[in-house]
From TrEMBL:
It catalyses: alpha-ribazole + adenosylcob(III)inamide-GDP = adenosylcob(III)alamin + GMP + H(+); alpha-ribazole 5'-phosphate + adenosylcob(III)inamide-GDP = adenosylcob(III)alamin 5'-phosphate + GMP + H(+). InterPro entries: CobS. This is Adenosylcobinamide-GDP ribazoletransferase. It comes from Phormidium pseudopriestleyi FRX01. It is a multi-pass membrane protein. It comes from the Bacteria.
Amino acid sequence: MRENRRVRRVVKFVQTKVARLGTLGSGLAAAIAFYTCLPVPLSWTLEFRGIARYAPFVGVAIGAMLGLLDVLLQLLAMPGLTRSTLVIVAWIGITGGLHLDGAIDTGDGLAVQEPHRRLEVMADSVTGAFGVMAAVALIALKVAALSDLSANRAVVLMAVAGWGRWGQLVAIARYPYLKVSGKGAIHQDSMGSPWDLLPGFLFLVALSGVQLWLDGNSWILAAGMVTGGSAIAILTGAWFNYKLGGHTGDTYGAVVEWTEALLLCLLAGL
C-alpha cells in the first residue's frame, strides 16, 4: 500500500513537470510566431497569453541568427559596410518589420503638437514624413554602429536584440496601456507581475558573463551590455510614457527599436 502511494506521488510529480514543460514550450512557440516571421509547424500548440516574458529570449535567438549570418558573410570576404547593411536588412526581415512599423507610427504621433491627437495619428495607416525620418535614422544608426564594430559582433547582436525586448517588457509591466484593443493589449492583460522581468534580465546578465569568459579583456564591453542595456531600455520606455502618458503596441515597438539602435551605438563607442 505504501509502495503504491509512493508510485502515485512519483507519477503525479512527473505529470506536473511534463505539463509545465508543455506550457513553457507553447508560450515560447507563440512568442516566435508573434515576434518573428520564422515558420512555426502547424502541429505546435500556441499559447499567446504571457508571451511578452519570452521576448528577451527570442531577441537573443534573433541576434544569434544574425551573428551566424555575419560570420558567413565575413567568410565570403564581404566588405564591412556591405556586410553590416545586409545584417540589418535581415534583422528587419526576420521580425517582419513589426517593431520598426511601431517606431514609424510613434514618430508620426509624437510629431503632432496637440497631445490629444497623437494616438489618433499613430493609429492612421498612412505613413507621414516624421515616421519615415524615424525609420531612416534608426536604420542609419544601426548600420553605422555595426560597421564600426570589428570584433564580438555576434555577442553584441545577441545582447542588443535581447535588451531591446527586455525594455518592451519593462514598459508593459510599468506603464498603463492607452488603447482598449490592439496587438499590445494581449501583453498588458497577461502580464503577471514585475517578477516576470527577472528571468530575461538574469539571462542577459549571463550573456555578458559569457562574453567576459570568451574574452577576458572585453570587460568594458561586457559591463556596457548590462549597465547600458538596462539603462537605455528603462529610460526609453520612460520617455515615451512621459510624452504620451502611457504606451501602445506602437510604442512597444519603438522601445525595442530605439533601445537596439542606441545600445548598438554605445557598444560601438566602447
